[in-house]
């Protein structure tokens, strides 16, 4: 299903801003995962990677927080939870909003982000174990 008609489309779609923060998050993930490996090469590289990763995560999660907070505020303003709990009829706008939230949950970028974090974490863990205990 396409999400083009939802009221949150500008947040769901692959906007330039969302791609920027997605890339920042991926680079931060790589930087943090590289710290242990870089520490074995040169501690200064590890520190640079750590600062870059933490700063990148700070930017990425500020962006994600603002998007989620905006959606949460809309849920509150439209009394969506109350309507759902009481099984009240939703308006057309309410249905559009709820579908937009589901649209955002289905984001391919989100799934890629989680896969990237998982894969890099596994690789970093294996390399760290090798460098710290086997080598």
Structure in a nutshell:
It is built from 6 helices and no strands. By secondary structure, it is an all-alpha fold. Helix 2 packs antiparallel against helix 3 (43-77) and helix 2 (16-41) runs parallel beside helix 6.
What can you see in these coordinates?
The structure is a single chain. With 135 residues, this protein is mostly helical. It has one domain (11-134). The protein has six helices and no strands. The chain has helices spanning 9-12, 16-41, 43-77, 80-85, 92-105, 108-134. Helix 2 (16-41) packs antiparallel against helix 3 (43-77). The radius of gyration is 20 Å and the shape is elongated. The mean pLDDT is 88.
Q: Provide the gyration radius in Å.
A: 20 Å
Q: Note the gap between the termini.
A: 51 Å
Any low-confidence stretches, pLDDT <50, length ≥5?
Answer: none
Largest sheet: none
Helix/sheet category: mainly alpha
Mean pLDDT: 88
Strand content: under 5%
What's the number of extended β-strand segments? 0
Name the shape in a single word: elongated
What count of domains describes the coordinates?
1
Number of alpha- plus pi-helical segments: 6
Order of helices and strands: HHHHHH
What share of residues is helical?
over 70%
Considering the chains and any ligands shown, give keywords for the structure.
83% helix, mainly alpha, 0% strand
Q: Can you lay out the helices and strands and say which pair or pack?
A:
Blueprint: H1 9-12, H2 16-41, H3 43-77, H4 80-85, H5 92-105, H6 108-134
Helix pairs in contact: 2-3, 2-6
């Amino acid at each position: 299903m396409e999400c083009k008609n939802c009221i949150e489309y500008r947040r769901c779609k692959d906007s330039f801003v969302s791609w920027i923060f997605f890339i920042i998050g991926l680079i931060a993930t790589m930087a943090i995962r590289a710290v242990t490996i870089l520490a074995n090469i040169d501690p200064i590289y590890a520190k640079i990677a750590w600062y870059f990763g933490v700063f990148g995560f700070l930017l990425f999660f500020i962006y994600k927080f603002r998007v989620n907070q905006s959606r949460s505020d809309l849920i509150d303003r439209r009394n969506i939870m109350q309507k759902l709990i009481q099984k009240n009829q939703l308006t057309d706008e309410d249905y559009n909003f709820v579908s937009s939230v589901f649209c955002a949950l289905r984001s391919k970028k989100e799934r890629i982000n989680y896969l990237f974090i998982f894969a890099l974490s596994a690789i970093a863990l294996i390399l760290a174990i090798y460098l710290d205990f086997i080598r």
